[in-house]
Amino acid sequence: MEYDLAIIGGGIAGLSLAHGAVQRGWRTVLFEAEPRLGGALHTCRQEGFWLELGAHTLFNSYGTILGLMDAVGLTGKVVRRRPLAFRLWSDEGEASIAARLRYPELLRHVWRAPLLRRADHSAMEYFGALVGPRNFAEVVGPALDAVICQPARDFPADVLFQRKPRRKRVPRSFVLPGGMTTLTETLAAAPGLEALPGQPVTRLACSGSGFGVFTAQGDWRADRIALAIPPQQAAALLVDVRPGLSEQLSHIGVSRVESLGVVVRARDVHLRPVAGLIGRGQPFYSMVSRDVVPGGEWRGFTFHFRPGALGHEDKLAVAARVLGTSSTRFGHVALAGHVLPTLRKGHARLRGRLDALLARSPVLLTGNYFDGVSIEACASRSMAALYRNHD
Ligand SMILES: Cc1cc2nc3c(=O)[nH]c(=O)nc-3n(C[C@H](O)[C@H](O)[C@H](O)COP(=O)(O)OP(=O)(O)OC[C@H]3O[C@@H](n4cnc5c(N)ncnc54)[C@H](O)[C@@H]3O)c2cc1C
What is the pLDDT confidence band of residue 238, given thresholds at 50, 70 and 90? Predict the structure, then answer.
């Protein structure tokens, strides 16, 4: 069968693009390498309890995502997160962020805020100037590392924390019943979309005015292709059909995060209820807790470890120490690996070069390496790519 659009990648970028394409009446097929759709939206479900191994929070500033949720009937089902805090965790133990800030240094720097520009500055240059170098090294830097699951110092400052209008009738931060996977499952089940999990695309070729898409199970033909996969993998697939795009994409690095989720009986955990912990000088960037949505007798925690820092047994030992329990008490353990782009200063220029190469092209590119790494940035990029191609 011939398709109007073949999408490679079944994370939120690919699935939101698929939703938009089907709405426009395009015959759409989506290929996902893993047996599970969703990519970094990755909920582990176990005996009625769920835990996020990847993304964990949605916000009422996520306008594109809320638009998709309206369309598939999820907006009325959102679950407000309990207002718990993220705290710092270091070798000295747990502390609030406020307790670790150096206020004299903060006051010497923060007055400059109106003079500081984010564009063309790294996170360390911008936030370091805003809060002072020691506050950056000891508090703000680790917090940013935790947000983007990688060392943040060289990340472009203007990609972090962009202000967007909020939809006031929706809670400021929320989750979905059954976790994030509820969103990707619902999008994938939309009538008209052919989603093919467990089918990694291994090669692309030009075919007439369109493209041939090849997997181990067969080959497909489509007028347009969309790549919604990490930039390095997109570069490899495009090398024969769009060498210029492939070359530009090869400049964007990726960073891996190794996640360990543990589910424990509440009575066996000593850590007080928290939204999560920011690791300072630790083998993990962050620990994200399920305490924001209480789960009866169970509590759940996902530790996002630096890649290659520890083996499995050592990760379990770290998790047990932080939670104040023994790993023999863990009722369930789950593992996941995800990649995130390592964007760098000057990214806006690289993005401009990519968009120039994509103008009037039957190739669409989407993902978390354009406007930011958030779920919203992925979905809004997908809609922008679709509108540009459609017009
Ligand atoms: C631990 C973690 C926590 C996060 N927390 C939040 C949060 O709370 N809120 C928020 O807004 N954002 C969060 N993010 C960021 C956000 O979740 C991601 O940036 C976003 O989900 C990425 O979506 P994507 O579709 O671009 O890529 P991915 O989710 O990586 O999906 C790409 C998909 O492409 C598939 N693929 C790759 N190669 C091929 C191929 N050859 N053929 C077919 N398929 C292929 C992969 O298997 C994958 O499923 C978090 C990210 C991580 C890792």
Answer: very high
Pairwise CA distance, residues 369 & 381, whole Å: 9
Mutate to test the pocket of ligand 1, among 227, 368, 383 (most ligand atoms within 8 A of CB): 368
Say if residue 390's pLDDT is above 90: no
- CATH 3.50.50.60 spans which residues of the chain? 2-41+63-75+180-252+344-390
376 to each of 237, 285, 379, how far by Cα in Å?
25, 22, 5
* pLDDT, position 1: 72
Q: How far apart are CA 200 and CA 151, in angstroms?
A: 29
pLDDT at 19 over 70: yes
Phi, psi of 176 (to 5 degrees): -115, 150
What global pTM score does this model have?
Answer: 0.96
Average confidence (pLDDT) over 259-264: 98
pLDDT at 251: 95
CATH 3.20.20.70 fits 2-41+63-75+180-252+344-390, yes or no: no
Q: Which two tokens stand for residue 291?
A: 């305490």
Residues within a 6 A CB radius of ligand 1: 8-14, 31-34, 39-41, 54-57, 149, 200-201, 228-230, 233, 257, 259, 304, 338, 340, 367-368, 373-375, 378
